[in-house]
Design a protein that fits this description.
Length: 425
């Protein structure tokens, strides 16, 4: 089974060694929000809700393809979103008049997949497009359980008691809440089970049904494995949910960062000091030696990025990061902030005085690609890196890469460490 714990492509890829595709039903009108725009197309920080959901699945290398089922009148809009936000694994198909019909169209599309690199999936994940917060390790559990059991679904404890009413609108009886759970998404099915279930189900199921797990049991005799998921599984349904989703998106985007050390012991020590210091900000730091090979995944995820290079001539490191970001060809949905911290020795001119043109040119070119380059000299380190980071998070800059080069005398490391602690306390 998948290793529990932090979302980690490596453990998920080790678990899921079979083809998995995703169907995102997005053909609804979102009436309960009271808005004109269907909720899946409402934008947060300049980006439609559905793009966050797609991005979450695209960032998982073991997901081979994604099909989004949208209303016919929204097909052009969906195609534009796919192009504008450089979504690669996804294609749009027409949805249906009900959620089940949309999902069925998505499943059928997976069966007619023409892209040679994408075969028929072993497991199909079904996930409402308006549930943007899907965690990789949980999704991996659902996919594994679906492969073993034929069907698997996410559940959450009930918040309110379920009661049955009489036709006159009075209480008939209430259900014992402890015995029941709320059915959420993601759900997973083997391709055979979900396609058979939709071939055999009735018109009434298509018209009034809301539960795919029920179809698997009713029409394929497949009893879904139920797995309790995290509270983030909730569905955006009402207008208040849009506000909640926006604040969670902002919160999520500014809670993790990637530190690149070049593999040098002293840089790793500095990164460890930073990790201890930002722990108080409830930030999670991932420390990697470089952005090569597997570590290139850091460029794909919604990582926060600040580049902190401590070597006196590390403009090439800044350029290397910009090249890597360019190579990933991802739409930079928020400003990518590259902070260049330079631990200059007393006898050295500040970098800005020695290489002003190169830095200015690099910064102005990068700005056109939504990348903001900042510089800090160690002498200015009273405004310590950490407070700089929190300042940038407040600004809403969410892509912060910490790249720690070297050429730092050990005294500076200690001072940096001490300063980090002081700036946290
Ligand atoms: N004909 C439909 C109806 C719904 N959905 C999708 O199913 C998911 C969950 O459904 P729900 O929250 O009910 O969305 P809406 O039907 O849009 O909401 P409402 O009932 O408020 O109109 C959403 O992503 C929605 O876009 C769909 O693909 N096709
Ligand atoms: O019923 P709605 O169309 O609001 O949303 C669909 C939900 O019912 C569905 O996502 C889960 O209950 C799991 O089946």
């Amino acid at each position: 089974m998948c290793e529990a714990g932090k979302s980690d492509h490596h453990s998920a890829e080790r678990c899921v060694d079979f083809p998995v595709s995703v169907v995102l039903p997005a053909g609804g009108t979102g009436e309960r929000t009271g808005l004109q725009t269907p909720k899946q197309f409402c934008t947060f920080l300049g980006r439609p809700l559905i793009s966050y959901t797609i991005q979450a699945f695209e960032s998982m290398p073991w997901i081979q393809s994604i099909v989004v089922a949208v209303a016919k009148e929204n097909m052009d809009l969906m195609t534009d979103i796919i192009q504008r936000f450089k979504h690669r694994k996804v294609r749009a198909v027409p949805g249906g008049s009900t959620r089940h019909r949309s999902i069925c169209n998505g499943v059928l599309a997976l069966g007619e997949e023409e892209r040679p690199a994408v075969g028929r999936p072993k497991v199909v994940i079904i996930h409402d497009a308006v549930r943007p917060f899907v965690e990789e390790d949980f999704l991996c559990k659902i996919a594994m359980a679906a492969k073993e059991q034929g069907a698997a679904g996410a559940i959450r404890p009930l918040v309110s008691t379920v009661i049955a009413t009489t036709s006159e609108g009075y209480l008939d009886h209430s259900l014992e809440r402890a015995k029941y759970r709320a059915s959420e998404m993601p759900q997973g099915f083997t391709y055979d089970v979900i396609s058979q279930a939709y071939q055999r189900c009735s018109e009434s199921d298509f018209e009034f049904g809301t539960e795919c797990l029920h179809l698997a049991l009713q029409y394929c005799g497949t009893n879904a494995k139920l797995i309790e998921g995290p509270p983030t599984l909730w569905k955006v349904t009402y207008k208040r949910d849009l506000a909640a989703a926006e604040s969670i998106i902002k919160e999520t985007l500014s809670r993790s960062a990637c530190v690149i050390t070049g593999g040098l012991a002293e840089a790793v020590n500095l990164a460890d000091a930073l990790r201890k210091a930002v722990g108080a900000l409830d930030m999670e730091l991932d420390i990697v030696p470089d952005l090569m090979g597997d570590n290139a995944r850091c460029l794909l995820k919604e990582w926060n990025f600040i580049q902190v290079s401590v070597s006196h001539s590390c403009l090439s490191e800044v350029e290397a990061i910009l090249v890597a970001l360019e190579a990933e060809n991802r739409a930079l949905l928020h400003p990518v902030v590259v902070i260049w911290v330079h631990f200059s020795r007393t006898d050295e001119l500040p970098v800005s005085e020695r290489a002003p043109t190169a830095i200015t040119e690099l910064a102005s070119t990068a700005k056109h690609r939504n990348i903001l380059i900042y510089g800090i000299q160690l002498k200015q380190s009273k405004v310590m890196l950490l407070s700089y980071i929190s300042h940038l998070y407040i600004l809403g800059c969410t892509h912060i890469l910490i790249c720690i080069g070297i050429n730092v005398p050990s005294s500076a490391t200690k001072r940096m460490d001490r300063n980090f602690k002081s700036s946290v306390i």
